[in-house]
Write a structure and sequence with these properties.
two-stranded parallel ribbon; 2 domains; globular; endopeptidase fold (from Nostoc punctiforme); alpha+beta
Length: about 220
């Protein structure tokens, strides 16, 4: 029996050491994977997570004009439109689009659309950032304006997409990681009337814009 125990003991020690090495290596591998991301990739990853988190909120679609604080102002959290989901997702990762859009509009107001129905003169911190056409101009000026194609592979997680729903009615959403069961298209987090949802709507309407916007310092 003593001989058997002596032969078994080294095997037990080896098994314990192997388990300890595995436990140590696992966090190291995860850290290496995270460290391998560029600051922009890490930012988009967080933005996508913030957009996904928005799908857990109940929001009543309400396009009413509301006076809000500045900066970092927001309409009541249980109300909003498509732009508010983009605004809230960016706010969750430290970017106040209300402030960023307003500051750019003050300096470059002529670059932004001034539709008669808005009576948009001068810039208005309550509503400017909540209008899709203004966000389209801002993202193209301060971010990356990407190609509009019919290839789903061109639309990556963290990208911003705008559409014309018909009759010149604009819409906006965020591309996320999850893909459709059929077609392999990345899904979109958006609010088209039923609150923030993740849906397969990338090519549901005419795409009018495709953007990628990071924090100003990246």
């Amino acid at each position: 029996m003593r001989i058997s125990s002596e032969r078994t003991w080294p095997r037990a020690v080896f098994a314990i050491l192997a388990a300890a090495i595995t436990l140590i290596a696992a966090p190291s591998a995860a850290q290496t994977q995270t460290a391998g991301l560029t600051p922009r990739q890490e930012f988009l990853k967080k933005l996508v997570a913030a957009a996904e988190e928005r799908t857990h909120h109940t929001v009543r679609y309400d396009p009413a004009y509301v006076r809000i604080p500045y900066p970092d102002g927001d309409v009541p959290e249980d109300t909003g439109v498509c732009t508010d989901e983009v605004i809230r997702s960016y706010r969750a990762v430290g970017i106040d689009l209300q402030k960023e859009v307003h500051e750019d509009m003050e300096k470059n107001f002529s670059a932004y659309p001034r539709q008669r129905r808005w009576l948009a003169s001068p810039p208005d911190t309550n509503i400017d950032h909540r209008r899709v056409p203004n966000l389209m101009v801002f993202f193209s000026r301060k971010g990356e304006s990407l190609a509009v194609t019919e290839n789903p592979a061109d639309y990556l997680p963290g990208d911003i997409v705008t559409w014309d729903l018909g009759g010149n009615v604009p819409h906006i959403g965020i591309v996320v990681d999850a893909k459709s069961a059929q077609g392999g298209r990345h899904l979109i987090v958006h609010n088209i009337g039923q609150g923030p949802r993740r849906e397969d709507v990338l090519f549901a309407w005419k795409i009018t814009g495709h953007y990628r916007y990071y924090r100003p310092a990246l």
